């Protein structure tokens, strides 16, 4: 898989934040060497978060996010500020852009508090240094630059890269659960919901992780699992199944073989497993009339038996035996209920 094909979920997400006219969009363009963001002297030119997947040296594959000003005003302005704050939930590295002539504001300090609260690594960038003679800051996470002249832009990129380099790059989907030469059986249903001619991305990523761990990946359909296990001649270390086939696969998998699903592995990989477990336990406490929020992270075209809009509500209703209400949202349009 090339750099241009790297999934967005596997790229370092770099969010650019700051007040209106601090020069966020100008800094984005200077750092990337491209005209990714619209630049204007008019306050509030950036009205929605702008996402761009690209390769940024010396980091490699990244997602650049340009955000609206955190000091926007009015009813629409409040919505834009809210969207900017929501971007923090998918930000790995934050770049706080401040007008060097104005210095840090109360809004900037509140953002820094949020960075620290969410444990987001960040760098404070004092832009427009060409208009003000400033001494170099002694703080490692601060830097004076000029988007207009290019002053210190390369050093800024190095600072961003150094923050990314400290991330744990050994985090695995499944590689830390298996050993070299282990057999891992992946159960992949091929039905009308499956894409034609290829496996879906989580399946591809899991196979790649198994191979990088020097283990053996064996891919079968759900109706071939029992025969495959009987004919292997060696007990697999792990069976991984698509969630929709879990019941059938569990019945065919001996109890002395570890069993999990792609969904569980990726919840663990993304750090959401503990929350997901708590959510599953909550099903036992639901009552008639309660509301369940289903927030989808993918952007696939919904089909007649879609997992988010059809299968999950059906499974939950069958399990709880309750009359429940369901609210469906895409992640970027997520709201609390």
Molecular structure report:
The chain has helices at residues 24-32, 74-87, 106-117, 153-165, 201-212, 225-231, 246-252, 262-269, 273-282, 307-320; strands at residues 12-18, 50-56, 60-66, 93-99, 121-127, 142-144, 183-187, 216-220, 238-241, 258-261, 291-296, 325-330. The protein is α/β, with parallel strands linked by helices and 337 residues long. The protein folds into 3 domains: 3-165, Rossmann fold; 175-269, 3-Layer(aba) Sandwich (Rossmann fold), CATH 3.40.50.11420; 286-333, Rossmann fold. Strand 9 (238-241), helix 7 and strand 10 (258-261) form a beta-alpha-beta unit. The mean pLDDT is 84. This is [FeFe]-hydrogenase maturation GTPase HydF. Residues 173-271 form the Hydrogen maturase F dimerization domain. Pfam families: HydF_dimer, HydF_tetramer, MMR_HSR1.
Task: Put the structure in a nutshell.
By secondary structure, the protein is of the alpha/beta class.
How many β-strands, per DSSP? 12
Q: Please, what is the average pLDDT?
A: 84
Report the uncertain regions: none
Number of helices: 10
Radius of gyration: 24 Å
The CATH class of the largest domain is Alpha Beta
- How would you characterize the largest beta sheet? 6 strands, mixed
Order of helices and strands: EHEEHEHEEHEHEHEHEHHEHE
CATH topology name of the largest domain, in short, is: Rossmann fold
CATH H-level superfamily of the largest domain: P-loop containing nucleotide triphosphate hydrolases
Helix content: 25-40%
Question: What spatial order of strands do you see in the largest sheet?
Answer: 2-3-1-4-5-6
Q: Please identify, by name, the CATH architecture of the largest domain.
A: 3-Layer(aba) Sandwich
């Amino acid at each position: 898989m090339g750099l241009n094909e790297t999934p967005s979920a596997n790229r370092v997400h770099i969010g650019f934040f700051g007040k209106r006219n601090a020069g966020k969009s100008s800094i984005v363009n200077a750092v990337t060497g491209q005209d990714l963001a619209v630049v204007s002297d008019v306050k509030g030119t950036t009205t929605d978060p702008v996402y761009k997947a690209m390769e940024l040296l010396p980091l490699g594959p990244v997602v650049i996010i340009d955000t609206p000003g955190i000091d926007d005003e009015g009813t629409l302005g409040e919505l834009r500020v809210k969207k900017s704050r929501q971007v923090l939930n998918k930000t790995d590295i934050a770049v706080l852009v401040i007008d060097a002539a104005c210095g840090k504001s109360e809004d900037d300090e509140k953002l820094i508090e949020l960075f620290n609260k969410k444990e987001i690594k960040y760098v404070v960038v004092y832009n427009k240094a060409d208009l003000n003679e400033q001494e170099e800051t002694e703080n490692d996470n601060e830097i004076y630059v000029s988007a207009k002249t290019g002053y210190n832009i390369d050093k800024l990129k190095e600072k961003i890269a150094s923050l990314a380099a400290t991330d744990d790059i050994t985090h695995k989907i499944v590689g830390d659960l298996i050993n070299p030469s282990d057999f891992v059986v992946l159960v992949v249903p091929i039905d009308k919901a499956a894409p034609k001619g290829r496996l879906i991305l989580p399946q591809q990523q899991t196979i790649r992780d198994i191979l990088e761990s020097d283990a053996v990946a064996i891919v079968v359909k759900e109706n071939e699992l029992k025969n495959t296990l009987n004919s292997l001649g060696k007990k697999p270390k792990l069976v991984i199944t698509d969630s929709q086939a879990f019941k059938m696969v569990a019945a065919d998998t001996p109890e002395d073989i570890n069993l999990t699903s792609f969904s569980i592995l990726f919840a663990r990989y993304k750090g959401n497993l503990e929350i997901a477990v708590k959510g599953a336990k909550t099903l036992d406490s639901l009552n008639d009339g309660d509301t369940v929020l289903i927030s989808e992270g993918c952007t696939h075209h919904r089909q007649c038996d879609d997992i988010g809009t059809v299968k999950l509500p059906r499974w939950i209703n069958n399990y709880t035996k309750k009359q429940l209400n369901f609210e469906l949202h895409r992640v970027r349009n997520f709201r609390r209920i």
